[in-house]
Structure formats: C-alpha cells, structure tokens
C-alpha cells in the first residue's frame, strides 16, 4: 500500500523552473498508472532521429500544460474574471489529461494498428474510466474537454487556436529540438489573456506576441514537425506496422510484448472494450521499438529490412516538390526499382507518394481575438497591420516521394 | 546500399546550437549501428523518474563531447600548441566513442547481468572492432582513449579531473534536468585551457570558472546523481535484474527480447567473445523496460512486484543518515517487515542497506592545474584563495536504508 | 605614456560570452578616445524611458559587430571563399567604426543641432582622421565602408538588408529590452552565409532563419523602435534642442558644457572643419542630459518645462491612427490648448503631428538571396512559401499626434 | 497636471519578463522625481569600464527587487504565513526605496563629496520626506526599512544575509556583466523560503541553492565587484573628486552643474538640511561625468590629468598581492615616480596603497537558517555537508598598489 507521506509536490522543469502540483486529486491522477504510462511515450515520435534532443515525453508536456493553465487562471482571476475553485481544478485536470489517450508513435499507430480510433476518443475513454475510479470528481473536467461546458472560455483554454496545449508544446518542442525559431513567449501571451463576453481574448498590446506565436508555429511546422527525414521515418513506421499486422493476419509468429501482440492479432473494434482500453494502457514506445529490434532477424524480408532501416537510421530518400509529381516520373522510379530487384509487393512498402501541408492560422475553425481598450474585439487577421497574418491563413501543400537511396535516375 | 548524398553534416543541439560533423570518417562512425545504439540509451538511467526532462541519450552526449573537443583543439592551436590534423581527428574520435560500451542502465547492469565487466572495457572492445572495420584508422584514437599516447595532454582532454566528458555531461545534465545549480561554463573553461610541458592547464584568470566547475559538480552529485529517489530506483532495478537472472538460472521462462535472453541465460565471461559483443550491441533501454513491463504478470511474486513498482513509479521508502544505522534499528525494520508478511527471501530484494558518497575534487587521482603569467603552475587546491576548494577534496559518505513504504516503526 | 602591457584582449559580453580583440591595430582603435566616446552614447537613445534595461551603448554594439564579423569571415573561409588577412582586418575595422559618427541621441541631434549632417558622413570623417593617424592602415576599411570595394560581398557584410550591423543590433536590443519577440538567431544566420558570384547569399536551409529575421525586425520596430512613448520622448528632445538653439541664436545664456556650447552657439557648416569634428568627439549623452537638468530652472518657460518633462518622464500624450488626422480634429485640440493657456509659440513645441513607418523588408534598395543546392539564387520574397514575406515588403505608415496630457476633448 | 490615464503598469525586464506595478501608491512612488532620478545612476558605477554591458541602473534594480518581493510574499502566504495587505505593501515599498539615497558613484562620493553621510542615511531621509508627501502611507515601510518592525522576518526580507536585495543584484549584475559564474537561482531560492518563529528560513531541500548563492556571491566579488580595473577606476574617481573639492575650497572656478557646484563648494553637514536633500535629488551620474569631461581642459594639472585618464579609460597600473607590500618596495616606486617628475603633491593622487576584502558569508552579523522537516532549524554553516561553507566565512584580504603605467622597476 502506498502511503501519502513523501509525496513529490514539486516537479523540476527546465523550461518553467518548478512546477507545483496543487492538490491531492491532481497528485493522485499523476501517480495513476494510466498517466505514468505517458512517461514512456515521446512527445515527438520519430523526430529524435532528426533532432537528437527531442526525447521529451507526453508526461512532461501534460504536466507543463497544467502549470501554464494554473498561471492562466491566476492571470484571469487577477483581472476580475470570476472562476470558482471547482472550475479551476476542472480545467487543470482537463488539460492534464487531454493527451492521455495518445499511443506510442501516435499518428503511425492510428494509421495501422488501431485504425480509425483517434487519440482524442481514447483520451475520453480514459477520462471516463478515471472518473469512475475517482467517484465523479472528473465530470466537469470531462465537460470542458468535450467543449460542452457552458463557460466557453474554459473550453477554449483547453482547445482553440491559442490554447494552453499549443503554448506548451511549441515552447517545449523548440526547447528540446534547439530550433530557436519556434521559441514563443508563452508566459507573455498568458499575461495578455482576458475574457470578454465569455470569449477568450488577447489584450491589444499582446498583438505582436500573437503574431510571433503564429509565425513561430508555422516555422516549427516546416522545420520540425514536417521535416522531411521525420516524415519519411514516420511513413516507414506506418508501413512497418502495416506489414506486421498483415503477417499477423496471415497467422505468422511475430515476437513482441503481450500488449502489442493483442493489438497485432486482434481486430480492434471502433469502440474500445474495457479489456482493449486496459491493454492499451500498457502499450508504449518500448513495446514498439523492442519488437522492431527483434524483427530485424525475422524471415519476412520486408519486415526485416524496414526494421533494420528504422533502427539504424537508414532512411528512404525523400524528394520534395511544390507541385504534384507527374505520372511519368513516378513510373520511371518504379521501373528503376523493379530493375534493381524490388518486387511490386516491395513497392507497397518502400515507395511512398504523399503530401504534407501547413496552415499557420486556420481562421475558419476558430479565431484569435484581440481586445482593444475601446472595447472592440477584432480577429487577429484584421488587426494585424498588413497582409502578413492573412497570408498565413492560406494552407501550403508540398508533395513528396520516398524510395530507396540507391535508386538513381540517369 | 547507402549513398553518400544527403548526408546530415550538421546536428541541432539545444545547448551549443549547431554541431558540425567535421569529416567522412567521423560521419561514418556516427552512422554505424554500434554508435546509433546510443540513441536508445539514456544518459541518466532512472533519473527521469525524478527529473522528467532527463531523457537525453548517450548519443547526444557523445556528439556534444566531440563538438567541445573540436572547440578545445581550436583554442589550443590558436595559442600556439602544435596539434596535427591526425591528432585532432584521433582525439575527437576518442571522445566520441568513449562511452560506446555503456549498456542500458549501465550501473545496474554491471551489478547484475554483465557482472564484473566495466563499460570502459566494453568501449575498448567496440573501438577495436571498429578499428578493424575501418582499417586501422582508429589506432591513435585508441591509444589516446587508453591513456597511452605520448602527448599526455591529449589523453587528459579525454579523461582527467577537467576533461571534455565532464564539461559536456555536467552542462547537459543540468540543462535537461533543469537543475540550474550545475550549469557550468564549459565554453569559458575551454577558452582558458592551455598546455605547458605537455600538461593540460587552465590560465590564471580561469580560476573562478574552475571553482564553479568543482562546486557545480558537487551540487549535481547531491541534487541529481545521488538524489535518493534515483538511487533507490536504481537499487530496485539491480535487484529486479538479479532476480531475473536467478530465475533464469533455475530454468524458468522469462519473456524478453533475444538480446536480453542471451545475457540472462548465459554466464557472461569476463572477456567478451565476439558473439557476446555483437549481442551486446543490440541491447538497449528498450529491451530492459519492455521486458519489465511483461514481467508484471509473471508468476514469481518478487519479480512481478518489483516490475510493477518500477513501471508505475511506486518506489521503496528511503531513509538517509550521516552515520551508519545501528543493527538494532535495522533489526526492528526487518522484524516489522516479517510481521507484515515479507519473507526472508523477500527481504533480499525489498530491503537495502548501502552508502553513497561524493568527492567533488579528487586531488590524488589527478589534479587541475592553474597556469600563472609568471610561469607558475599550481594545483587549484593551493591556488584558491582559501579553504573552500580544499574542503571539497574530502569525500562525504551518506548511509541509507530502503524498505516498503507501508512499514512504520511506532 | 601608455605601455602595451596589461592590455585587455578579451571583452565580456552577456550575449556572445567572450569577445576577442584580434590584433594590435584593432586594439589601438578601440582604445582611441574617438572610439571610447561611444561608451557614453546609448544605442537606443530615449528608449530606456520605455524599456529600463536598454542602457547598452554604441561601444558595445560596435564591439559585438566586430565579433560577429570575425565569425562570418571564418564561416565563409571554411566554405572555400578566399579572403585575405588584409581584407578580413579591413572588413572588421569597417564594421567596428561604422557608427563612430553617431552623436548623442543621434536622430534628435540630426534634426536640431547638427542639422543636415548625417552620422554616416561624420563616421567617414572620423575614419579619415584615424586613417591619417594610423598611417593609411584604414584605407581598405574605408573603401568597404563606402561600398566602393571591388569585392561586393564584403561591402554587403557591412551594409545591406542582412548585414552584420542588423544581426548584432536586433539581437542586442532584444536582449537588453527583454522583448523576446525580436530575438533573432544571428549565429545560425551566419552559419548559413555563403558567397556566389561575389554576392552574399544565404544557403537554402537557412530560409526559416531569414524569415524569422525579417519578422523579428518588424516586431522590434513596432514594439521598440517605434514604441509611441519612445517616439514622443524623442520628438520632445528635438523640440527642446531646437528651442535651446533658438535661444542661443538670440544670444541668451544657456548653462552647458563647452562641447555643447560650441554646437548651440555656432552655425555648423555642412562639411565639418577639423575643429568641429574634434569638438564633436567630446560630445556625448552626458553633455545633453546634464544641460537639460540645469535648464529645468531656466527662465524660458518652454525650455524649462520641456526639460522638466523629459527628466521626470512626464511625457506628452500620444494618439495613434492608421489614417491621417483630419484638420478639424487637429484644430479642436489646438483650440483646447489655447483655451487652457498655451500660446501659439508654445504649440510649436508641445503639439506634434507626424508619422512613423515600418518596412520590414525593402526589396528595392537591396535583396536577401537564397542559394539552392541546384545552383539557383532566389530573392527571399519569391523563395518563401507564400505571401508572408511579400506582405512585409509593403511599408506601413501610422499617423500620430502629441499634446499635453491634461487636454481632454469632450 | 498629470492625469491617471495611460499609466504604465507593466515594466519590461530582460530577467524576469514582465514586472507588474501592483497599485497606485507604488506607481506614484515610481513616478516621483526622487525615484526617477535612479534612472540616471548606474548600479555598478565604474564597472562598465571593465564589463561594457554593465550599464543597468539603480532604478531597474529597485523595480526588480519589488518584483521579487511580491513573489516572496505570495510564496510565504501560500505556505500559510499570515501577511496582511498592509504589510505586503509596506515591505514592497521598503525594498523599492531601500537604495533611493544612493548618489552617483556612491562609494566614491561617500569618500569625497558627502563625506561621512552613508547612502542608507540619505535613503531614510528621502523616505521620510516622501512619507510627508504621501500623508503617512510609508510609515510601516520605514519601520521595516529601519529593522524596527515587530515581525522580524519582514525586516529580514529587506536586509539580511539572504535578502531580496542580494537576490536581485547578484542575478542582475551577473546578467548584465555576462559573468555567468554569479548567476544565482533567485526564483528557486524564493520558492524555498518559509517563516518559523518569526525567523526567515530556507526549507531543507533548498540547501544547494543556498550554497550556490553563497559561492556565487563570492565569485561575483572577486570577478566583478573587486575586479582590479574597477577598483582602480573608483580610486581614481575618489582622488579626482577630492582634488576638485580641494580646489573649490581654495576658491578656484570649476565648471559644473548647479547641483554638483552646491556639493563641491559647501561643507555638507552630517544631517542634511532639506535644501541639501533637494539638491542631492538632482545629482546623478550625468553631473559627475559631464563635469569631468570639461575638467580635462582645466588649468590644474592633477585635475586635468585624472579627468583625461578616466574619460579615455587610461587607468593606473594595479599590482595585487596576498601580503602587505613592504615599505622598501613602496619607497622604490615613489622614488621612481619622483625621478620621472611626479611631485609629492602628485603622489597623493596618482599613488594608491590599499586593501580589498571579501567575506562570502558573514556568520556573525546574521545567519542563513535551514528548516528541516523534523522541525530543526540549523545555520547553513553547520548544515552544509562539509567544511565548504565554513571556509567561506573567513574574510580574505588582498593588498594592492596603483601607480602610473610608465613606472617600471628595473
């Protein structure tokens, strides 16, 4: 039995200094195995192959979000926004748990093993289970997480164009990758937050911090999240897991942990059963990577080669373009691959054609509002002194091809 | 086949900015699977249970060392120290590979699975294997690593009281843990290096940087490396692996990866065979942690409980003291444990009595010398204006006990 | 006589760490009274009234520029650009001295006391004087400063859209003001520089650093350089000095230092005589501010009130607008002022109508070029993935009015 | 008349980000000319001759202290220490104004122009004047400043071995000089503060932060505050001002500002009259430096040469020693100076013999107490694990001589 003595109440964070855990409920949620699992899931998946410092975890991000949320609530209360202790606690829990449903290499997983079930859905399932365990104390947090609470600004703090989630992950990812271009001023932004008519707004003088936030986010997308080596590594992982699933369906033996075995050999229903959820709660980066390491010596050549390439960071070549590649060019590459002995089955796994896109500011899904001293509330796109931010609302699409490095077109 | 195009020549580092890989030999060493393995071995073992930001890897540390070494060589050459390109390359390779023999949770491993074989020994084995593969190009690096090269200062840059290894890891560990007290000024120290009579020295005006280095190192030991929660987690891991080895010896089945299986079920000889080395090169944090996760449901209660405790961060209680605990007190705890149902077999694994110690500056093994304008060369202990540094040469020992949290002495 | 012993060769800089002075010529230039004067001229004029940390001097900026220039030359030489030691020295001197002609509160001065003589002109005069003193050793530096040297990229390093001047001052001003939005990555930018066909270019992968540079520059303009309180303080200083000059012309006695007296009471010719230059070399912030302090008790009410307002940071009110203010509105304010006892003579000094403007990237005067692996050289405006940077080429103009705080329009 | 609109309520600080001015009373104190004067007094006097970044002002330090004090009070209140709003405000005002009596180049002044009147005395005079103006609202602040308030820990926050003053100035001076060795963790220290039996204590786990604070303070003394070039510059300034005062006493004309004239020509009584105080409130760095610049062309050779040397940073040579210099050696230098034409009158100003000393932790004047979980309260000297801190309680004295650079002893 664990006793309440010796409880760690302060967490060291290289970014914010000390993070304080405000009360026993939140402490117990952090101690819960469902949450502790996030210690073993990296925030940025395969990106550490490109940025070797990027090994920070979803655990750290979640705790960082809770810290910023406490700060945001304090700022808003100091400005006269009435927020009850119950609401404060709920919004802190909502942000703490918002990513609890992320699996290992989340996006890769969602496109292979738990096909069709988003991490948001799983987060909600975990929160509901925890709510049972904690006797209903998470109900308001769940409402806020689902965006259903009547006080809209609390939902917006958890999920919107300028939510606490983004404020932490942009800053944190910039810090750990060393890509200074994305270092936004989260604490300055939070100091400028306010609430008008139940709408989260940024005070007038925060306009340049918002601009830097949007520009910084865009730069992080191009330099980090959509970095071509990171993208190809993820594609290779998707293909690898798809191959593993295909072999499992055929009944082949794949050495791996029990939790991963469950997801490889069972068709996962769209609505998780409790057993599926519990098994998912034991699945993390370590199951995936240690299996891949063992698969290097598997008899299936495709599985084996993809495994070796990922482990030894021997990635496919990537070609990037502003326009779609024409069919002729693609055929040329495929023919060349055939000539060099790659079968059409191989091509399913070692040739990729896809797109990446980046929209720094999506003014349709939700907006960032500036609040002027004269009472006006204006969308940042209009408030900004020129076309600059408006330009950033246009999504940019890039096309890419991946194929083995040896393939040379004369 | 990998082609030389698209080679990453610059590595992002949150601490130093850009790290440049100076030439193809070093590039190829970094790309080698032996070295890429270090991407999957954390620098600080279980410390991330205490400092959640401390997930940086031995890969990153090794590359950071190479960067600082390049800087040190440039500084020395600018001061007129003659260093050939061959020597520069060799000392960079020596520091790059100095930790290549570290296994996962190195210290835990050395006390359980590869009992008696130090990571330095294994590093040397890897370097010799690589030297064969790279046709003798690593010979001088190996001499320097072994401290056998005739130009002593090059050996000292790789291993001494003020070596590049410490300059990187203190700074890096401080950065990732967020423990600002240990943030030493590596780049200032390097700027002050010089060589006199083949001895690495620090110029006079660097005296305060050296003092800060020694004091910072001591603070990092107490706050981080010897943090009681980290120490107990490592002890628990040692006990867990010892239990696994014990069960393996008895012939029990332990689900785990092939590489870990090899080391659990085979008695490892003091001098690794090539097969042992190759298997070791496939062993990393992922083998250990994913096995532990599966062992939570193992039939052996001791193995299962230790596994669950480590995975869910439910650690033993630690009691610290400046003096040794008296036998009576220890008996009391053990009796209490017996009363609560822990058997004497259990006690081998769930009760720990041990010491930790810290010596900030060891003036016997080697010294840090200051170089004065008038030509004098003085040990920092004597140069420092008072007893301060001398005080730090005295090793400090602390005693500790670990036992289950539920155990209360009336 | 000063002897060459004990020469400080390393300068501490909070931004770059240590700055090394590379040789005796540069050391002697830094020691020269003409250059030492820059220690007494703040880089940002009246901005410390808004940003209290902004007390850094033109001395520090100039030395920082020299440091970055050394780094830039090293980077270019490592990439194979041939640069002789003579050229390296010259371009370092050119950047070191590029601001030596700045007077105290430069822009204010140029609009009042040394009307019509730009600081660039005066810098050139100083450089020519120093060239005589140092027996022609500055000739090449002067050519580069004047943009006349045949190797264009050296001139561009000193003066262009992406010159070393901007790289230092944006970073430095961001550091000292605490406005993180302007913290550009000077060292990353420099690492990406190259020279193609005698044109300074930025390598392809530096595109996001360039974008951040342009965006950061724009943010610094709006948040710092054109901050309304800073702008009004400067306007008030212009008016104050104009009043002093007016009174001097009338023959009134104005207590002040000898150097300031010279410029107040003498009509300064467009081409400085040697005497004017020598007197200018003794004029700095201390002459101006200590005079203003004494003028608080001057009989002239306008001079006295403006002096008191500046010293005690009691600034005029500023009103900002995207459009020009209409005449009717302006008349209203002036009438109100008249009603409250301000004469039309007063209005010349206490009412201001003016504009400020900001153009983040001026693609007409000169361009920033990106250099692609395939050999293409492309203007950043076209290279950027969208309208974002193009938007920033449009100058933005804001109109403002200043008048006493007490003036209220019903 | 100034209206309350447009009040700046947030101050940018490069160290802490935003500093909030909590209420109108504090805002009005900051706006007061007595306090605004601190904008024109550098925190570190002549140190910018050594560390060119060190131009930060006493204004900025005072405001930074107020910020840290607000944080400290919040931390203590969160730990259950009862502090009324009135007390909070008073302790913030006490720290805000604690340095308001500093004159320009304070220590130099105290040894020349306002001989015998300490800045603490003058601070108290200003606070009493302001208390009249603000109708008694500063009474409690004054009690705390004088150490007379019944709740001792509030006095200790303002003045003790670990007061808010030191926490700000060590951090700030380290930041602006770039001497990273002194970068203490003010915010971590504050997080560890607590109050037991009306005594300010640091919680047990803050022990290493306290150690770093003491060691950092010592390093800042040797590297910055007692840097030999800074020390000699200050000595020269003392001698220069003493010479000016001597000439003034003789009735010679010394061009200077009115405020400086008052202090040069009048014998200042130990207890300032109101007129003296008001004149002092108009005296700042600008009066001193602009006078010195004009004195370069004064007829008195001693005044003129000292002025020229300070302005052009042509300092006396310094010789440092752990022991006192013997009389014979001193005579040798003086004789040599005589031979080279320096008269005995000159020697009073151009030859200095003095000592500097440094005591990192003074355990007699007051102590830093650690607070253990078991309730123990222990002096840091005893709590520290070894002799390290005890060593730092011993004062270290160094002897130095200053004389013209040209003087060479064969």
TrEMBL record, chains A, B, C, D:
A GO BP term here is: dGTP catabolic process
Keyword line? Hydrolase
Question: Where does the record place the HD/PDEase domain?
Answer: 54-179
Q: Which InterPro entries match?
A: dGTPase-like, HD/PDEase_dom, HD_assoc_2, HD_domain
> Which SMART domains does the protein's record reference?
HDc
Any keyword Hydrolase?
yes
Q: Name one GO molecular function term.
A: dGTPase activity
PANTHER family (alphabetical): DEOXYNUCLEOSIDE TRIPHOSPHATE TRIPHOSPHOHYDROLASE, DEOXYNUCLEOSIDE TRIPHOSPHATE TRIPHOSPHOHYDROLASE SAMHD1
Per its record, how is this protein called by name? Phosphohydrolase
- Name the source organism: Wenyingzhuangia fucanilytica
């Amino acid at each position: 039995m664990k006793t309440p003595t010796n409880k760690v109440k302060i967490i060291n964070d290289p970014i914010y200094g000390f993070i304080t855990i405000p009360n026993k409920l939140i402490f117990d949620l952090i101690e819960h195995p469902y949450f502790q699992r996030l210690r073993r899931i990296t925030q940025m998946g395969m990106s550490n192959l490109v940025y070797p410092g990027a090994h920070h975890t979803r655990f750290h991000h979640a705790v960082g979000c809770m810290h910023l949320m406490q700060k945001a609530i304090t700022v808003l209360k100091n400005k006269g926004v009435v927020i009850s202790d119950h609401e404060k606690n709920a919004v802190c829990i909502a942000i703490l748990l918002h990513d609890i449903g992320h699996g290992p290499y989340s996006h890769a997983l969602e496109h292979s093993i738990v096909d069709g079930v988003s991490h948001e859905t799983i987060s909600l399932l975990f929160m509901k289970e925890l709510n049972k365990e904690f006797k209903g104390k998470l109900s308001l947090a769940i409402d806020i997480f689902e965006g259903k609470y009547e006080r809209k600004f609390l939902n917006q703090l958890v999920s919107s164009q300028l939510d606490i989630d983004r404020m932490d992950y942009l800053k944190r990812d910039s810090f750990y990758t060393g890509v200074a271009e994305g270092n936004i001023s989260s604490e300055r932004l939070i100091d400028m937050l306010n609430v008008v008519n139940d709408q989260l707004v940024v005070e007038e003088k925060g306009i340049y911090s918002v601009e830097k936030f949007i520009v910084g986010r865009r730069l992080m997308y191009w330099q980090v999240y959509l970095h071509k080596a990171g993208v190809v590594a993820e594609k290779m992982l998707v293909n690898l897991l798809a191959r593993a699933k295909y072999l499992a369906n055929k009944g082949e033996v794949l050495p791996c942990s029990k939790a991963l075995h469950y997801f490889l050999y069972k068709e996962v229903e769209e609505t998780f059963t409790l057993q599926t959820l519990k098994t998912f709660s034991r699945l993390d980066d370590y199951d995936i990577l240690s299996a891949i390491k063992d698969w290097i010596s598997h008899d299936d050549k495709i599985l084996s080669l993809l495994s070796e390439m990922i482990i030894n960071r021997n990635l496919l070549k990537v070609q990037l373009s502003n326009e779609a590649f024409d069919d002729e060019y693609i055929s040329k590459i495929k023919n060349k691959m055939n000539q060099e002995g790659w079968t059409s089955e191989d091509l399913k796994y070692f040739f990729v054609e896809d797109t990446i896109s980046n929209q720094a500011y999506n003014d349709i899904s939700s907006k960032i509002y500036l609040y002027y001293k004269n009472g006006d509330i204006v969308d940042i796109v209009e408030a900004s002194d020129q076309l600059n931010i408006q330009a950033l609302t246009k999504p940019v699409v890039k096309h890419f091809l991946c194929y083995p490095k040896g393939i040379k077109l004369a």
